[in-house]
Amino acid sequence: MATSPCSSSGVSSSSSSGLGADAGLEIRTRSVEQTLVPLVSQITTLINHKDKPKRSDKTLQAIQRVGQAVNLAVGRFVTVGEAIANENHELKEEMSVACIEARRAGETIAQLTDVASLDHPESDSHITIFTDKTGVVKAARLLLSSVTKVLVLADRIVIKQIITSRNKVLATMEQLEKVSSFQEFVQIFSQFGNEMVEFAHLTGDRQNDLKDEKKKARMAASRAVLEKCTMMLLTASKTCLRHPDCESARINKDGVFHRMRLALEQVIEIVTDSRPNGENEVAPISIYSGIKEFKNKVEGLRENLYFLSKENLSTMLEVILEHTEDFTDSAYTSHEHREHILELSKQAKMELEQLVSVWMQAQNQKTKDLMEDLEVAILKTCQCMNELKREVHSAATSLAADLLKYHTDHMVLKALKITGVEGNLEAVAEYTCKLSEQKEQLVEMCRLLRHVSGTEPLEITCIHAEDTFQVTGPQIISAAETLALHPSSKIAKENLEVFCEAWESQLSDMSLLLREINDVFEGRRGEKRVYLSLPRPGKHNANLKALKPVKLDTEEQAKIAKLGLELHLLTSDVDSETEKWEDQENEIVQHGQGMSSMAYSMYLFTRGEGLLKTTQDLFHQAEIFATEGTKLASALHALSDQVHDDDKPLLLLEAEKLISMCKQLQITAKAPAQGKSATFTKVDACILKTRNVMTLLCQLLPLCCKLLRKNKVGNGCLKPAPPWKEDRIRTGTNARTPERRVDTFGIKSLENHVTNMTFLESK
């Protein structure tokens, strides 16, 4: 569907003035859309002034300045566009036409707004914005249309770069598949690594720039596959070269190459917005989205009794109830959940029958009593669907929580590594069967979670997780078989380690995904618990009014993404530690939870989300975080008075470390910062120092627990362990490096020329 550049909130005002760009141009990226915002704002101001009766000299001068500014900016803009056209011959003709149109429209606007020196700008002797009111609208339309064309054409160059980069990667992959010597492999893999880095940079920029959140999530999933598979490709290929006659090694390597090719293909599908053979993508419908649409239709009957048929509504419910069979037919759904889902499904059918009956009567006779009965039927139907939604959510998330807890010890992976090194083929076969069972459980978990994920991006993340478990399981098995056949092979052992790490990493990601799904269900949409005893960010600060609030732009968010992700992972670790304490009222736990909550808000800020909207909000939150850390240090001092003398020095040392780090963070948060560069440096420093405090907190919480248990202070700290107690293995996470912004294709230059224009405020 084509999208007007005026569809975003930043340019919506233009529609009232009759402005609009070429309807055939679809804008898929934020950079193109945002580049048009200041231009549309300027032109809208001019259009709004053309009908105003009062025109002071100051207003006339302002109108003339804006007209000249638009013309000059368009001139510089067109110069860049023409340079791009000369460098890209396949676009030269289209780009040149668009540039000529833009230049002509800019000059027309400058002529029509040349009113400041005229005594009577509205007299017919001079053609101005006041005498030729339709002329300025036509020029504005032409200008917007032509500028949009230039931007969209420049955007095609970005797409071309990504495709070219993908083609280079594919060509080098083909060479890697055919190599027969280590020396040749090392040379080609070095080239492949450089090409993958370039591809990662280009696609990272594109991912950040996409407007469609669903496409953004698909791009993130594909890039994650490529990132993990690059290391797998290295070890799998080396293993195959070392053991060329080993069938399991060949299967292992072929699997990696196949998965990378699929991921590369998906990236191109997203970037070009096309699918092979012209197929349309059929997205699987989740129970959540089905219920949401069904409820919207039912509630729509309040406004219009005739806008849909009863058959349409019945079909929608049937589709939802068919999907609930994924839960009722699953071997992993508890008996209690299964019975409740079946009961609610039956009730939903009955409620719909009652609704349809009253609805049909109301169509024939619109009495007050019937309309009241219809309202009751609508409410009861929606309530039943809400209960069904709650039940499937509970079934999916409780299963996920249990499975993730049960598999956190990675016992099967450990056993495969040990038996592989021993060359025990029989034991390896036994544990591969167990891994296959585990894989089926986790795949089923992902399928059920997809139904209750609540948003399209989270649905895509569930599908990606399902694919990862589905593919990685057999790859671990083939890697383990190779090691068992060659137990003394260091490279085969390393290869198995890499695939096991990918499995462990995906399990860790599932814990984060489960939390996000619960957040969406509970209406937090990614916000953590807010501890009401803490001051809310952005308030209680007398200095805020004197400072101009600043938001991070897309480029700055990309630079700080790695730090933000690390902070996110640390909050998960801290929450995991605090949840182990039986006494949740313990002062140390309270402070730890509060700090984790604030750190999570700071992480969301790095993504442009959450409660912290400006850099000043962030700096104030950092100050409160540091204060909370100082209070925690006081609690540690109090605890040191209750523990044995042998333990006291270590606890006091850690408390002093915490105090020092919190003081440094407070100093940084309060330090003045003038200008964009200095502000971003301060943001970076605050997040970095918050991360360091959270790292220390991750070490402090288990230490305090251990000392409390050893000294039997208070009510104890850890919850009773279940009979199958797992030893939690904390796996290292490869936080993705922030994507480098490359400015080699001109679109940033185009942006700069447009956004440098000054704004005229409508009065």
UniProtKB/TrEMBL annotation:
Compartmental location: Cytoplasm
An annotated Gene Ontology molecular function: actin filament binding
Single GO cellular component term: cytoplasm
InterPro entries found in the cross-reference section: Alpha-catenin/vinculin-like_sf, Alpha_catenin, CTNNAL1, Vinculin/catenin
Low complexity bias: start-end ranges: 7-18
Superkingdom of the source species: Eukaryota
GO biological-process terms attached to the record: cell adhesion; Rho protein signal transduction
UniProt keyword annotations, A-Z: Cytoplasm
Stretches for region Disordered: 1-20
SUPFAM superfamilies linked: alpha-catenin/vinculin-like
Transmembrane segments: none
Family stated for the protein in its record: Belongs to the vinculin/alpha-catenin family.
PANTHER family with a match to the protein in the record: ALPHA-CATULIN
This protein's name: Alpha-catulin
